[in-house]
Design goal:
By secondary structure, the chain is mostly helical. Helix content is 92%, strand content 0%. The radius of gyration is 61 Å and the shape is rod-shaped.
Length: 160
């Protein structure tokens, strides 16, 4: 009998076919939806809130970074314009200084030329005066003649 009861139990299990629509399928569907509800309330909503907080934090940091970049760009533009303005002012001042230095140089050069010409004229007059004094001095004439005769005798001695 035991063998027959096992065969009967085995036959009863095969009667349902592929899907068994007794109480297990609705219970499995109810368990699935219950599990989905629990997972949504316990895991998905907190994770979603954390994700939203992180997204808001990232957006806030992105806006802060964009603001910092725009401020840095405007400061860089301001710096470049100030540098450009300063360079133009420096160039203008250097040109003015160059022209002033050139004028000073030309003035001093003309003064030096004038003073050197005056010194040259004075020296020439002084030399001419001393030559005329020497020309009137008999001792100087005798010494000059003696020196000239010595030079001439030296030249004649070398040529022989």
């Amino acid at each position: 009998m035991i063998n027959i009861s096992l065969i009967l139990l085995n036959n009863q299990e095969k009667i349902g076919g592929l899907f068994d629509f007794d109480g297990t399928l609705p219970l499995t569907i109810f368990q699935f939806f219950g599990l989905m509800f629990i997972l949504e309330k316990i895991l998905y909503q907190p994770l979603s809130e954390i994700g939203n907080i992180r997204a808001a934090n990232i957006d806030e940091k992105t806006k802060g970074a964009e603001l910092s970049i725009s401020v840095a760009t405007s400061l860089a533009n301001l710096y470049n314009s100030e540098v450009s303005t300063t360079e133009k002012k420096i160039d203008l001042l250097l040109k003015q200084d160059d022209s002033q230095l050139n004028e000073i140089f030309q003035t001093q050069l003309s003064e030096m030329n004038q003073s050197s010409m005056e010194a040259l004229v004075e020296t020439e007059q002084d030399i001419n005066k001393k030559i005329s004094e020497l020309a009137n001095n008999n001792k100087a004439k005798n010494v000059s003649i003696t020196i000239a005769s010595i030079i001439i005798s030296q030249i004649i001695a070398k040529s022989n």
